[in-house]
Specification:
446 residues, 9-stranded mixed beta sheet
């Protein structure tokens, strides 16, 4: 017969052993496993209270949306649908995000009404006498100089010139949810919102985009003059690229070097921000594992060459040059070590490994914390979480106290729900005299 001590001991051990598997099953993993899927993630439940511990989960979210948006798209009646019959890495058709509505389909001459979501029946920014060719990329705009400059804190920043002496071009697109909200907002807004007269701003009736809204901004390198052996490392596609001097578009191969993704997720009304870039943009710096290889898109490979200062924005008062000097770009802050590990996990994941997307890396994910009153990472977090930036889209803001949410948060103060593209592009856009633009540039550079 068991003694009372033995019975109690065995009972305790039995209860303990029965509890341990349950407890371990409920404990969140330190890092999630990569998922390769055509389904865009629409929710995230961070398991930890410490933002640093949650970083792998938000970085995983960023990679999952990157994969879903770069999945080969269906070319047919509906825009924005993934083709599940094609494997990931098939670049014979556009990616899902490339079939979304471009800004030139939303902001038309004279404030004309845009076409419905699935329609391509709208004016071509290359020729107002032509219509868009379905599923064709246009790096063009009805404003000839649009798409040359990076975003700035007060106005557009200067242009970026790749090492093959070509201006980097920028493209912006929105998904179905965001597009339909703009052209047909709820009755509490005076819409449509592509007209400046309906963008009153302020805090009385601020814009609130619906959850599920996603916007994408891409940075494209013109591949003219790039040796053919390098092309296989880039996602390369054909685009009708506008020459603002001649006013003509020319079919031109372009390579993706950067991609911003901003996603309005339930529980995160201030959006989740993620930014990717090509591993060959610039050399790795101390604190980073080298994933890229020379020759670099934005760096000449000579460590003694200082970074280039920001130039004047391209506009009608400062048109692009025929043979611009390349911009020397250097990464100022290392990508977070945890983010680097997530990149390695996804680069090695079945479905990604061996595809062109293995040559792209997540630079940073940023999200609101404390009910949106703060963000992670931010200027107060220890390095390397502080002010990490995309060198292809935020070249001259890497060492500032700004960030995705800090810059776009200013749009909240004006009632624009964290986005600037509406007030900056809504019709009509006032024409500022060249002398005023020059004086403003000189003042901001003091």
């Amino acid at each position: 017969m068991l003694s009372r001590y033995t019975f109690v001991t065995r009972l305790f051990m039995g209860v303990l052993l029965a509890w341990l598997p349950v407890a371990s099953a409920q404990a969140p993993a330190a890092r999630p496993s990569p998922q390769v899927s055509a389904v865009v993630p629409v929710s995230i439940t961070p398991p930890f209270s410490d933002p640093e511990k949650n970083l792998p989960y938000f970085d995983d979210f960023a990679w999952r949306e990157f994969i879903a948006l770069t999945w080969p798209a269906q070319k047919g009646r509906y825009r924005g649908l993934a083709d599940n019959g094609k494997r990931y890495g098939d670049v014979s058709v556009p990616g899902v995000w490339e079939t979304w509505k471009a800004d030139y389909e939303l902001f038309l001459p004279g404030g004309a009404a845009p076409a419905t979501w699935n329609s391509f029946d709208t004016l071509s920014p290359c020729d107002p006498n032509e219509r868009l060719a379905p599923y064709t990329k246009y790096l063009a705009s009805f404003d000839r100089f649009h798409g040359f400059n990076q975003a700035g804190l007060k106005r557009q920043a200067g242009p970026l010139v790749s090492q093959n002496r070509q201006y980097v071009r920028y493209e912006f697109r929105v998904n179905n949810t965001q597009y339909n909200f703009i052209i047909n907002p709820p009755s509490r807004y005076p819409g449509p919102l592509y007209l400046a007269e309906n963008l009153h701003g302020g805090t009385d009736n601020p814009l609130e985009f619906p959850f599920g809204s996603i916007g994408v901004k891409a940075s494209w390198r013109i591949m003219t003059g790039v040796p053919p052996e390098q092309w296989s490392r880039y996602y390369v596609t054909q685009a009708n690229v506008l020459d603002p001097v001649s006013g003509r578009c020319t079919p031109t191969p372009v390579g993706l070097i950067g991609l911003h993704i901003v996603n309005k997720v339930v529980g995160f009304p201030n959006w989740i921000w993620a930014t990717f870039e090509h591993v060959d943009n610039v050399p790795a710096i101390p604190g980073e594992k080298s994933q890229g290889r020379a020759p670099y898109a934005l760096n000449n490979g000579d460590p003694t060459t200082p970074p280039s200062p920001m130039g004047r924005p391209i506009d009608r008062c400062n048109p692009p040059r025929r043979d611009p000097e390349p911009t020397q770009v250097v990464r100022m802050r290392p990508i977070a070590s945890s983010t680097q590990r997530t990149n390695e996990d996804y680069h090695a994941a079945p479905g990604v490994k061996g595809t062109v997307w293995e040559n792209y890396q997540l630079v940073m994910t940023q999200w609101p914390t404390h009910d949106g009153t703060d963000s992670f990472p931010n200027a107060r977090q220890p390095q390397p979480q502080t002010n990490t930036a995309n060198v292809a889209a935020e070249t001259w803001f890497q060492d500032s106290r700004s960030s995705c949410m800090a810059c776009h948060g200013r749009a909240n103060l004006h009632g624009f729900d964290g986005v600037w593209f509406l007030p900056f592009n809504a019709y009509p856009r006032p024409e500022v005299p060249c002398q005023s633009l020059l004086q403003k540039d000189e003042k901001e550079q003091e």
